[in-house]
Amino acid sequence: MSDVLEASLPFDLLAPQPADALLGLITLYRADSRLDKIDLGVGVFRDDDGQTPIMRAVKAAEAALFEVQTTKSYLGAEGDALYTELLAEIVFGDQASSERMSGVQTPGGTGALRLGAELLARANPDAKVWLGSPTWPNHAPIFAEAGLKTRNHRFYDHASAGVDFTGMLDDLRDARAGDVILLHGCCHNPTGASFSPDQWAALSNLCETRGLIPFIDLAYQGLGDGLAEDALATRTIFAQLPSAILAYSCDKNFGLYRERVGALWVQSGNRAIADRVRMNMLSLARSLWSMPPDHGAAVVRTILEDAALRADWVSELGSMRERLNGLRRLVAAAHPRLSPIGVQRGMFAMLPIAPAVVAALREDHGIYMAGNGRINIAGLRAETVPIFTQALMPHID
Ligand code: LMR
């Protein structure tokens, strides 16, 4: 090959990339032929049969859409505006109609996070984004790919299996006005640990006095303590602060994972700024994905528009939450070291075990979990809790 030709092959310069470890678990689990294997890996809800069902209201809304939808023509970069409006009421309650708020539909929560990151990078490229340790492994790459610097602050205290709030505040002393702090609105991924209401209030005050911008990731509303309860922290923050951002995902609470349904809301100082924020969100979205996929958002809109479908969704979501919290109580009762799992919330908990033990549980017992010891509680069943805890016992003190 000539030098000229070789130099024109820029892909030769690409560095190899590791496969996503979390998504890799799906393939590993599928390839395991053991019948008694247990999947506690990727965060999808599972019922007592180990299935990730399509929710009843979703099925009904899909059938209704099939009948009434007459076109697949473009909607525009903002997506389905009524979807975003109805969902905003679920998230923000009566703060939803504030003229300082700009919201658009996005492809999943990841799309919302990325759009928010691009907006921040355009508004203030010097802003640093503060992430708790640990956090969802995709957070850091999303902000870094948008060109923003990230910094870590302490969040999880392994000894107490709760929040290290003192350590977190200590680390945040280095945060500067205009920096962004990423907060999980409820059901922390991967730890399940939550801030107390007092700690949320303190964080809101900290953001106000120091000029930090809270960026809330709300991906599990309704799977912790209830729809309104899981939005309480978000509402406190948005009520107090002039500027705040929220990335939302309907993956888990509507079970719409692969349909990629999310939204981004940005609150700013006044209506005129909110209009400019919106224009920027739309121009960024246009260059990122042009328009978000419609089907899942149309399903959510159909559910929220119809009183009966909405009631059925709320009720099924309540059963999902009860299943998760019931399993939490069972695991918590098995060993004192596991008792914090009973008070933690959401789909996840972090086991106090080393990566080598994670590998041994997979190889010897067919129990699959993320490399950091994160388990998806929904992957358990009442019958498999004792099998799981027995396999785990020798490895916790
Ligand atoms: C998870 O954390 O397992 C889920 O949010 C799935 C994902 O995209 O990582």
Going by CATH, the architecture of the largest domain would be 3-Layer(aba) Sandwich
Helix percent band: 40-55%
By DSSP, the count of extended strands is 13
CATH class of the largest domain: Alpha Beta
Main pleated-sheet profile? 7 strands, mixed
List keywords for this structure.
two-stranded parallel ribbon; 14% strand; 397 residues; binds (2S)-2-hydroxybutanedioic acid; seven-stranded mixed sheet; 13 strands; alpha/beta; Aspartate Aminotransferase, domain 1; Aspartate Aminotransferase, domain 2; 2 domains
Descriptive report:
44% of the residues lie in helices and 14% in strands. With 397 residues, it is α/β, with parallel strands linked by helices. The protein folds into 2 domains: 115 residues, Aspartate Aminotransferase, domain 1 (Alpha-Beta Complex); 232 residues, 3-Layer(aba) Sandwich (Aspartate Aminotransferase, domain 2), CATH 3.40.640.10. Strands 2-10-9-8-7-3-4 form a 7-stranded mixed β-sheet, with helices on both faces. It has a two-stranded parallel sheet with strand order 1-12. The protein is globular. The termini are far apart. The model has no long low-confidence stretch (mean pLDDT 95).
